[in-house]
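Journal club side-thread
Mid-discussion, someone asked how the predicted structure for our own chain would compare to the paper's figures. Pasting it here so we can look after the session.
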Amino acid sequence: MTSFDVALSDIEAAQKRIAGLVRRTPAYESHDIRERLQRRTVIKLEALQIAGSFKVRGVFNKVLSLSEEERRKGLVTVSGGNHAIALSRVAGTLGMEALVLMPRVTPSFNIELTKKFGAQVELCDDAAEAFAKAEEHAKNGKLFVHPYDDPNIIAGHGTLALEFLADAPDLTHVFVSIGGGGFMAGTAAALKAKRPDITVYGVETTGAPTMTEALKADMPVTIRATSIARTLGAPFATARTLAAAKQFLETILLVDDAPVINDLQWLFQAEKVLCEPAAACVLTAATQIAPSLPDDAVIGLVLCGSNISLEDLHSWHHATPSA
């Protein structure tokens, strides 16, 4: 059985490495969410991060861990979402070449953001073709940066949890969304290392149950995501992220798309912050669980990203029934 291989010392080293390159995003108690959940609630606004999501934390840490010779090779990755956007932003900031292989179904908003920050984009028929092409580019000299199965990526993501605990040291129950599991792994590892008594919940949508299915099978399995939460649609977990889920999570909560979109709109109204479905889903999950938590619980919600277009918001608003 694979053991999880990212330690608190790796995450603390990442925090020093990326200091000044990423935004220290705010965390604060929300009156409106407290009223709704009937529990004190602190939200971590990673939706305000550079390039629109937590992903720059991991990518900066990965790239800054490379030797000068490795950096000169240029980067290649596979992503249709936030990792693509982050890799392009990081490469542009550090003056590196980057190639992003994207499935043809990738929303034009994500493609244009990735190009805007300087990466080359190559569209592929599907993720399988994209990964195959990435392997070819790696054989020909480019450095492949995996979207989530990389210890340096995971350690970088864990820096968010160090900030969250510094700002809200009395957190008792934290909700984190899961795509391929790299973000969950780093965040949960840091939370549990600093505060073993904290309960961490993973959150997935019913149309993207990547880690849920891996836990059922006790091994990574390939899924075909159907969720509106595109950035949760990783095709598979990995042995590393599965090990983290087993070690750190209390459970994984599954939520449907419709209430997630309602909560996305609710957060926009209540907190004046625009979130992806992958971020809003933690509020949906906390709403299910909050009544069963102790009255003095302090809930933490990580709002992980904001890369959606106004066209997305408009179409979801008209397609989703009101709560």
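Post-session note: The mean pLDDT is 93.
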